[in-house]
Amino acid sequence: MKKLRVVIPKGRIHKKVVQILAEAGIRLDIDERGYRPFVSDDDISVKIMKPQNIPTLLELGSHDVGFTGIDWVTETGADVATVMKLGFDPVRIVAAIPEENEVADLKKKRIVVASEYEKICKAWLDQEGYEYVFLRTHGATEVFPPDDADMIVDNSSTGRTLVENKLKIVGEVLRSSTHMIANHDALKDDWKREKIERIQMLFQSILDARSRVMLEMNVPKDKLDEVIRILPCMRAPTVSPLYKDEGYSVKAAVKKTDAVNLIPQLKTIGARDILEYEFRKVVA
Q1: What pTM was computed for the model?
Q2: For the domain with range 4-88+177-208, which CATH number is right: 3.40.190.10, 3.30.540.10, 3.90.1570.10, 3.40.50.300?
Q3: What is the C-alpha to C-alpha distance for residues 91 and 109, in angstroms, rounded to an integer?
């Protein structure tokens, strides 16, 4: 039986990938110590691996499609296709040094630089003109300075861990977030490509739904044009006459970030009985 072989990451981004798969109708039953969960879709098999290994495994053809940070695609140099940007867990890959040190002083000597990212790190250091010895880490990179390294290149989401370890950022090397990637040969297979495109479409509808809400309200006849004028929507708002011709019911899908300011404006204009509710999927 033909299957789409999917590899999902362990660690930080695991939960969000499993969640969006479930919302797309692909539910996983994961044993706490297992690496091959049960999949509700008989056409799909899933294996759980470290995110840094996923790009290379896809290039080699062990799996058809997977999820990992674009930082690991760049670091491994794997020849894979980017299917879509999911945007989960955005991070910056940054260079950081102890608070009391200065870049100008470090450039006068040979320094030790610690990082999990060898390729990314060395390319940036060469570009910036540092003389260095590279030290490969396997987690907890932030604890190396000042005793074991003069600089680190590591991922940071909030910067809090760096501050707690008395480090300051001196350069941004790369920005990364979770991407859905695929093996090139899998995309040449009609059955697998169709399966991947279907998942991609469902994912996009879920991501679009997460960014929007539905606003529904009743609007007096003489206020309709004014309400429509300020109401952003995906295409055009839905307008229906109310019972006994007492105005209109208006619905519009708007961005969540816009809704906070729109609702008071709509109320001031004269809209009433305003409802806000969320979507599960949005397919334009």
Answers
A1: 0.84
A2: 3.40.190.10
A3: 30
Instruction: Give phi and psi for 91, each to the nearest 5.
Output: -140, 160
In the chain the first and final C-alpha atoms are separated, in Å, by: 34
CA distances from 47 to 7, 55, 220, 269 (A): 5, 14, 56, 54
What pLDDT band is residue 234 in, cutting at 50, 70 and 90?
Answer: low
Q: Do domains 4-88+177-208 and 91-175 have the same CATH topology?
A: yes
Helix, strand or coil, per DSSP, at residue 224: helix
Spatial CA neighbour of 11 closest among 89, 75, 80: 89
CATH of domain 91-175: 3.40.190.10
Helix (H, G, I), strand (E, B) or coil at 10: coil
User: Which three-class secondary structure state does DSSP give residue 12?
Assistant: coil
What is the Cα–Cα distance from 252 to 270, expressed in whole angstroms? 16
| DSSP structure class, residue 65 | E
> Checking DSSP bridges between strand 65-69 and strand 4-9, what pairing results, if any?
parallel
In this structure, which amino acid lies at residue 238? T
For 128, half-sphere exposure in the C-beta direction (CA atoms, 13 angstrom radius) is 19
All structural domains of the chain with their residue ranges: 4-88+177-208, 91-175, 212-278
Owner of token pair 């260079």: 95
3-state helix, strand, coil in the chain (%, to 5): 35, 35, 30
Residue-wise pLDDT tens digits, 24-51: 999 999 887 778 999 999 999 999 999 9
Share of the chain above pLDDT 90, in %: 83
Which fold does the domain 212-278 belong to in CATH? Alpha-Beta Plaits (3.30.70)
